[in-house]
Amino acid sequence: MANSKQDSYSNPVTATLTGIRDLFRKQIKAGELMPTDRLDGMTVLVDGASSGLGLAVAEHCARRGAKVIMACRSGIPEKGERVKKRTGSKEVHMLHVDFSDVNSIRKLVFEVKQQFSPIDILVCNAGIVPKESRKTPQGLEEMFMVNYFSKFIFVNLLLEKECFSAESSSVPRIIFVSSESHRNPAKFEWDTFGIYEPYGIRKSVERYGYYKLLLTTFAVELSRRLAMNGKPSVSVFALCPGPVNSNIGREAPLLFQPLLRMVFALFFKSPAKAAVPVMYHAASAAQEGKSFDYLFLMSRKDVDEKARDEANGKKLWELSEKLMRSI
Q1: For the whole prediction, is pTM greater than 0.85?
Q2: What is the pLDDT along the chain (327 residues), one digit of tens a residue?
Q3: CA–CA separation, 61 and 73 (whole Å)
Q4: Residue ranges of the alpha helices (H) in the chain?
């Protein structure tokens, strides 16, 4: 069974086929997002919001009455203007961030605190699948930084600066866009944590799954730490939206891009439809006051046992804190 899981996301072809197969599996829905599940008066921060799933989530939130902050590396201001035009909302704002750069993350937190705090909902969506490893300004590997470590830094700084609403009648929510590929890695690589290691396109999808394991483990551990008294000060949710027809494969070899675009268009969900589990976490009254929840599509599941293990959560937190101090 373990080998079967590891093979499912070991390369771009098997990952794509696994995503298509999952779409046709019977799902038991965790709940239904209702028209009455509104976000009026709430402030929602969505990162990676210039395209794909993040852009769709920003539009959904604006339609449900939220003030929306779109944190992006590109698309400013045109993507924000697009959301305003399509939703009729005037409360759509954009902030620049490069999640591969720690200094950019710190600047974003300062701007959020000064201009938009307190926030009620954070959607951590930004992610990349590069064709090869690249170094960040701080010397870390880019996909490790963007897909996992930037989230650790960003969320902890927002909490440290008290950017989440403390007076709202609803418990604030942090939502991580993860992936079922977090089940794929056989183990944690503690000895090489944070150390830059080069890789090429053949290992890119495999590394993506490993960093989603780190992200999901962080989400579970964060939920523990935010519910020390038995009642969460902030709810923590995670999800896999399934395969999304987005531009995440933009760095695939040029030879394969036409095929990928065709497969994505034929079989993968549109960002608007894939955003439904994100919106369920963000807006559903049924999620109020929960400490942690994970959805695959709209089906409730336990995360992988490695991510649930408390010892792994503590170890990841300790190593991440140590790395954060070092840079």
Answers
A1: yes
A2: 444 455 555 555 555 555 556 656 677 899 999 999 999 999 999 999 999 999 999 999 999 999 999 999 999 999 999 999 999 999 999 999 999 999 999 999 999 999 999 999 999 999 999 989 999 999 999 999 999 999 999 999 999 999 998 877 789 999 999 999 999 999 999 999 999 999 998 899 899 999 999 999 999 999 999 997 788 999 999 999 988 766 655 555 555 556 555 555 556 678 999 999 999 999 999 999 999 999 999 999 999 999 999 999 999 999 999 999 998
A3: 20
A4: 2-8, 12-23, 52-63, 78-87, 102-115, 142-144, 150-160, 201-225, 257-267, 271-274, 276-283, 305-308, 310-326
Is residue 243 within 8 Å of 19, Cβ to Cβ?
yes
Q: Nearest 5°: phi and psi at 39?
A: -125, 25
* Tokens found for residue 302: 């336990």
Q: Are 144 and 213 in contact (CB under 8 A)?
A: no
Q: Give the homologous superfamily in CATH for domain 2-26+39-326.
A: NAD(P)-binding Rossmann-like Domain (3.40.50.720)
> CA 131, CA 129: separation in Å to the nearest integer?
7
> What is the Cα–Cα distance from 50 to 56, expressed in whole angstroms?
9
Amino acid identity, position 315: K
Domain ranges of the chain: 2-26+39-326
55-104: per-residue pLDDT in tens?
999 999 999 999 999 999 999 999 999 999 999 999 999 999 999 999 99
Q: Which two tokens stand for residue 197?
A: 């290691």
Cβ within 8 Å of residue 245, ≥6 positions away: 264, 265, 268, 269, 270, 271
C-beta atoms surrounding 79 within 10 Å = 20
